[in-house]
């Protein structure tokens, strides 16, 4: 690609990367009246911003992570209205297939309130799963506060909305080589390419299972989760230490709250958001 110098006027906020993290930071900066310049080497958001987000998991968080998730939820709903991308207050479905998992859900509902964590029976769980599901299903719980968006639509529409805002500039097909550079390196300019809107009917509740109950803190902090972890350890030898570590290390929990894998060597494996 032929390189050319691009004028680089002062800006309040410079964001390198027009993925979902960059775009949401840009949207918050706009809300504060700041000028924003967004640089990306591609012509639109790709990779993890398309395939690795879409579920704002609130009900399974606790403490500081719950506060962050609640703020993120409000931000997604607000910008859905502003940018016009689809978002649904779908809630999530936690499925229990043994008595230990049922005990975790019962304790969570008792401590968080039945309005936020609504217990349902096996028949109701299967109805949520369109009449299907593991015959071993005993019960479930609806987590009220979770929301979902479609990443194929949200990224493109958020970028398009930002491009229309005063004091927001995109530099697509542009690389940035550090703070010492006076200008980024740019190829030919290209417009953002929003994805086509999805069928709203394809967006359903996120499903959480027993392994989610030992990894997400609201579940894992219940007293009933001890037996669940022990049971998983008995059925899958070698995993119990990983489960204890994943619950104990706040750095891992922060990464998992955002659907990201911590740096190599810091955790036993990724967990979807």
Characterise this structure:
The protein is an alpha/beta fold and 273 residues long. The protein is built from 11 helices and 13 strands. The strands form 4 sheets. Strands 7-8-6-13 form a 4-stranded mixed β-sheet. Strands 1-12-11 form a 3-stranded antiparallel β-sheet, with no helix packed on it. The protein has a 3-stranded parallel β-sheet with strand order 2-3-10, covered by helices on one side. The chain is elongated, with a radius of gyration of 21 Å. The protein starts with a strand and ends in a 16-residue tail after the last helix. The N terminus and C terminus are likely disordered.
Structural key phrases:
4-stranded mixed beta sheet; disordered C terminus; 11 helices; disordered N terminus; 273 residues; single chain; 16% strand; 3-stranded antiparallel beta sheet; alpha/beta; elongated
């Amino acid at each position: 690609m032929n390189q050319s110098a691009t004028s680089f006027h002062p800006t309040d906020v410079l964001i390198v990367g027009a993925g979902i993290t960059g775009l949401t930071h840009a949207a918050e900066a706009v809300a504060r009246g700041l000028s924003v310049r967004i640089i990306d080497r591609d012509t639109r958001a790709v990779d993890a911003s398309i395939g690795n987000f879409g579920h704002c998991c609130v009900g399974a968080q606790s403490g500081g992570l719950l506060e962050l998730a609640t703020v993120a939820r409000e931000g997604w709903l607000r910008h859905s209205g502003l940018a016009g991308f689809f978002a649904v207050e779908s809630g999530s479905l936690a499925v229990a297939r043994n008595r230990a998992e049922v005990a975790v859900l019962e304790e969570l509902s008792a401590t968080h309130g039945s309005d936020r964590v609504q217990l349902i029976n096996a028949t109701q769980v299967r109805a949520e799963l369109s009449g299907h599901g593991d015959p071993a299903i005993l019960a479930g719980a609806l987590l009220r506060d979770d929301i979902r968006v479609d990443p194929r639509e949200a990224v493109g529409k958020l970028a398009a909305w930002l491009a229309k805002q005063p004091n927001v500039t995109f530099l697509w097909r542009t690389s940035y080589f550090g703070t010492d550079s006076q200008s980024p390196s740019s190829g030919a300019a290209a417009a953002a390419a929003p994805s086509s809107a999805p069928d709203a009917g394809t967006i359903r509740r996120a499903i959480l299972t027993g392994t989610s109950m030992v990894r997400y803190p609201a579940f894992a902090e219940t007293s009933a989760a001890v037996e669940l972890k022990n049971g998983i350890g008995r059925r899958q030898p070698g995993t119990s230490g990983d489960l204890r570590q994943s619950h104990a290390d706040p750095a891992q929990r922060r990464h998992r709250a955002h659907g990201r894998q911590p740096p190599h060597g810091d955790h036993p494996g990724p967990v979807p958001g």
